C-alpha cells in the first residue's frame, strides 16, 4: 500500500466525499446542500435548515410541520439526567457538562440498527430537541435553580432563550438567535465534524459520535474561539489600546482569536451576516462599545495580516451578538454546539451509507532494534 505524503493537520487532504456543504475559501462562499448561506439566513429557519442538512432537501410544508412538532414535543429531558446535572461542580465548563449529558442521553436509548431509517430519525430528533434543554438546565442548576421546562408554544430559538431565564424573548432577539444557529449549523469537514466521522466509522451510536464532536469543538482553536474573542475585547478595553495590543500579539507570534481560518483566505462569509445581526440588535437594544473595539481591531489586524490570508472568521463577531442577547460568556461555545448538531448528524448519516473505518497511517520517526535495559542497569 503506497504511503501518501504527510500533511500536518491533514491540511488540504480530503478525508471524505460529501454533498452536504461546500466552502470556497478564496471567494468566501458557503452553501448548505447547494443553497447559499445568505439565502438560508434570509428566507429559512434553523429547524428548516436542519431538515435540509440531515435529509438532503428542503421539507414540504407538511414535512416541516411534522418535524417541528416532533422536535418541540421531545425537548424535555429525563429526570435522571437532571439529577446527574445536580452532581456537577457549579464551576464546571458548560461544554464539559454538555458532553457528559449527551453521552448520558445515549444510555437511555440502546444502539439498534444503524441502517434503520426510523432509528436514525428518532436519534436525530432527540439530539436536536434535547441538547438545548441540557445546556439550559445546567445553566439554571449551577445557579441553584430548578431548570426551566421548555415552553411548547415557543419556537426553537425563542424556547432556548426562555429556558435561560424564564422570560419570553423579544421577537427580534429570537429571530436573530435563530439566524445565528443557522449560520453555525454546518461547515464541511472542520475538526469537530472530522471527530464525528472518525468516531462514527467504528459504528458506535450517534450519542457517542456527538459526544466526540462536542469535546473537539470545545478547544480555543475551534468553537472555543468565540468565548476567547470576548475575553480579548475586554482585555483590550478601549479603541486606543488596539494598536499596542496587536503589536504585542504579533511580536509574540500569538494568535488573534476570531481571526484566520484553515480554509477561508478572505473574510468568512458568516462574519458580515453576524455584523448585520449585531447592528439590528444595537438599533433596538442600544450600542455595545466592544463592537467599536472589534471594528478597530478588524481594521488594524487586517492591515497587518491580510497578506497571509488572515481575516475575521465566524467567531469574531458571534460573541458580540450573544452578549447583546444577554447570554453568559461561557455559554457561547455550547451554543455553537447546539447549532452544529444538524451538521454533525448529517455527516454521521451520510457516512453510514458508505462507511469505512478511519485508520490512517503515519511517518515513523522513531528508533528500531533497541535492547531492553533492566531497571537496575538504568542510570
Ligand atoms: C472555527 O474549520 C472550520 O470550518 C472551523 C469553523 C467551523 O465552522 O467549524 O469555521 C469554526 O473553528 C473558526 C476558527 C476559530 N479559531 C480561531 O479564531 C482561533 C484563532 N485562529 C487560528 O488559531 C488559526 O487561524 C486556525 C487554527 C483557525 C487556522 O490555523 P491554520 O490553518 O492551522 O494556520 P496556521 O496556524 O498554520 O497559521 C499559518 C500562519 C502562521 O504564521 P507563520 O508561522 O506562517 O508566520 O498564519 C498565522 C500563523 O501564525 N496565523 C495567525 C492566526 N491564524 C493563523 N496569526 C495571528 N492570528 C491568527 N488568528
From TrEMBL:
One of its GO terms (molecular function) is citrate synthase activity. Pathway: Carbohydrate metabolism; tricarboxylic acid cycle; isocitrate from oxaloacetate: step 1/2. Keywords: Transferase, Tricarboxylic acid cycle. The keyword Lipoprotein does not apply. Pfam families: Citrate_synt. One of its GO terms (cellular component) is cytosol. InterPro entries: 2-MeCitrate/Citrate_synth_II, Citrate_synth-like_lrg_a-sub, Citrate_synth-like_sm_a-sub, Citrate_synthase, Citrate_synthase_AS, Citrate_synthase_bac-typ, Citrate_synthase_sf. The active site is at residues 261, 315. Gene3D superfamilies: Citrate Synthase, domain 1 (1.10.580.10), Cytochrome P450-Terp, domain 2 (1.10.230.10). It catalyses: oxaloacetate + acetyl-CoA + H2O = citrate + CoA + H(+). One of its GO terms (biological process) is tricarboxylic acid cycle. Belongs to the citrate synthase family. This is Citrate synthase. It comes from Tumidithrix elongata BACA0141.
Amino acid at each position: 500500500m503506497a504511503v501518501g505524503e504527510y500533511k500536518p493537520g491533514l491540511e488540504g487532504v480530503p478525508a471524505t466525499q460529501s454533498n452536504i456543504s461546500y466552502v470556497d475559501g478564496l471567494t468566501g462562499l458557503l452553501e448548505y446542500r447547494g443553497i447559499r448561506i445568505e439565502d438560508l439566513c434570509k428566507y429559512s429557519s434553523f429547524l428548516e435548515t436542519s431538515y435540509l442538512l440531515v435529509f438532503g432537501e428542503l421539507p414540504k410544508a407538511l414535512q416541516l410541520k411534522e418535524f417541528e412538532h416532533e422536535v418541540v414535543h421531545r425537548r424535555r429531558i429525563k429526570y435522571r439526567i437532571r439529577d446527574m446535572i445536580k452532581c456537577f461542580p457549579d464551576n464546571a465548563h458548560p461544554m464539559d457538562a454538555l458532553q457528559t449529558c449527551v453521552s448520558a442521553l445515549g444510555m437511555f436509548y440502546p444502539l439498534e440498527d444503524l441502517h434503520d431509517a426510523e432509528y436514525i430519525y428518532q436519534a436525530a430528533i432527540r439530539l436536536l430537541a434535547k441538547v438545548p434543554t441540557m445546556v439550559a438546565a445546567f445553566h439554571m442548576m449551577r445557579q441553584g435553580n430548578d431548570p426551566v421546562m421548555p415552553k411548547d408554544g415557543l419556537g426553537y430559538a425563542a424556547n432556548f432563550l426562555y429556558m435561560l431565564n424564564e422570560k419570553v424573548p423579544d421577537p427580534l432577539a429570537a429571530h436573530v438567535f435563530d439566524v445565528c444557529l443557522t449560520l453555525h449549523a454546518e461547515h464541511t469537514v472542520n475538526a469537530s465534524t472530522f471527530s464525528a466521522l472518525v468516531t462514527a466509522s467504528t459504528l458506535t451510536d450517534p450519542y457517542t459520535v456527538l459526544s466526540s464532536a462536542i469535546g473537539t469543538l470545545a478547544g480555543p482553536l475551534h468553537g472555543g474561539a468565540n468565548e476567547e474573542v470576548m475575553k480579548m475585547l475586554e482585555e483590550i478595553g478601549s479603541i486606543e489600546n488596539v494598536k499596542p495590543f496587536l503589536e504585542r500579539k504579533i511580536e509574540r507570534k500569538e494568535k488573534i482569536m476570531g481571526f484566520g481560518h484553515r480554509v477561508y483566505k478572505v473574510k468568512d462569509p458568516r462574519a458580515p451576516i453576524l455584523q448585520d445581526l449585531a447592528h439590528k440588535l444595537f438599533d433596538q437594544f442600544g450600542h455595545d462599545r466592544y463592537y467599536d473595539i472589534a471594528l478597530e481591531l478588524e481594521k488594524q489586524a487586517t492591515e497587518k495580516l491580510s497578506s497571509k490570508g488572515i481575516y475575521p472568521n465566524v467567531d469574531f463577531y458571534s460573541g458580540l451578538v450573544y452578549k447583546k442577547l444577554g447570554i453568559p460568556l461561557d455559554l457561547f461555545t455550547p451554543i455553537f454546539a447546539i447549532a452544529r448538531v444538524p451538521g454533525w448528524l448529517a455527516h454521521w448519516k451520510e457516512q453510514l451509507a458508505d462507511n469505512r473505518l478511519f485508520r490512517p497511517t503515519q511517518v515513523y520517526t522513531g528508533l528500531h532494534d533497541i535492547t531492553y535495559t533492566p531497571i537496575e542497569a538504568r542510570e
